[in-house]
User: Fold this.
Amino acid sequence: MSDETENYGLSTRGIRAGQVRTAEGEQSEPIFTTSSFVFESAEQAAARFSGAEAGNIYSRFTNPTVRTFEERLAAMEGGEKCVATASGMAAIHAVCSALLESGDHIVASNGIFGSTALLFNNYLSRFGVTTDFVPLTEQAAWEAAIRPETRMLFLETPSNPLAEVADISALAELAHHNDCILVVDNTVCTPVLQQPLSLGADVVVLSATKYIDGQGRCIGGAVVGNRELVGEKVYGFLRTAGPSMSPFNAWVFLKGLETLQVRMQAHSQNALQIAKWLADQTGVQQVYYSGLENHPQHELAKQQQKGFGGLLAFELDGGREQAWRFINGTCFISITANLGDAKSMITHPASTTHGRLTPEARAAAGIRDGLVRVAVGLENVEDIIADLEKGFQAAAG
Ligand SMILES: *Cc1c(COP(=O)(O)O)cnc(C)c1O
Assistant:
């Protein structure tokens, strides 16, 4: 359907884009579990290797199942090219390795995914790429942090777990005015709720492990953007350095894309209802969810996103002890720090995802001891609320 893809709606793209049927006439996409591909002749092998003829050579370079996933996700994000990777972190690493060089500088938002911050601080720094972190929502701080050698702005919106929302269009303008690219990690929203490329971002990175899989089975990631940055530079790095996506995982993810639209809507609906309920409970100091009208960037979130997503956090006034009692008091909600699963998940950020930060750094990031994060799943919302009710009872006891 490639020529007409642009005219179709998001669900249609998620279900139809990228499929090329084989001579067997299969309805569901096949998994090509092959490491290499066979040529008809020595001449053809030479032509494939020289690039004179397009086609498969080796699955680190291209694989038909992986290509279907890539074309489908590119169609959904509205990008010219998508490159699939072995994990979300491999996607971020590939973007930095392909697009930056020694001496370059990154400005990134505070509170990005922990491994991303470690990659920037502990590993890219060894190759002469330095990073400064700024508050996500403070445009003036982004502006002040940009230096002549800054080449990349990097952010996640909404942030996790505090659900702050960045103005993507304004930051894209700032980036381009300063000869930088804007990279947005779209893991939490997915293209269903937010399309950063259409707002001016240059590159989107995603962890497919989360909502794209949606049922907690596989690790994977992707980079989406234009032909030059992603189709040539990021792809060139990836096929050489090697963190490619396996065909089996690509198949799980491409099937995930088929239901992504309805799932994201259902996650968002459940989360909004739960956020409103939480705001009315005694002992809750604050609920962090951009769908609530008193959220500081609620209007921006409404404009920029098609829904508010499945991730929320709330603060209990009794500190860590009470937060742990609450978590232990729930019954079926999984105690795990992941997100983006049909199964609801609960975690205590201060002692898990943000446990390695110093108390001062945690305080600066706004992660207090009473904070509890819920990645709202797709169970019946009244059952999730009843389970959280058990948490409140345990926390009070
Ligand atoms: C999980 C996650 C990543 C890393 O993805 P992996 O697939 O675990 O490597 C990056 N960014 C965000 C926002 C994430 O939630």
In short: The CA atoms of residues 95 and 234 lie 6 Å apart.
